[in-house]
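Per reviewer request, we include the raw input and output of the structure prediction for the construct analysed in the revised manuscript.
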Amino acid sequence: MGIGLIFKIAAVGILVTILSQVLKHSGREEHAFLISLAGLILVLSWIVPYIYDLFDTVQTLFSF
């Protein structure tokens, strides 16, 4: 896992926060929720392979 992934996650977080605040103040709470959900799904799609590798490593570590 590189530092680039952490920066991408931080950038998505900042962008989602700004968009959500703008949409909430304009009275579009539903769109703000969908933007937040889309950001969460995007970040999870980046992280899931690393979680899979972690579980695979733990499984090989504890297998006899």
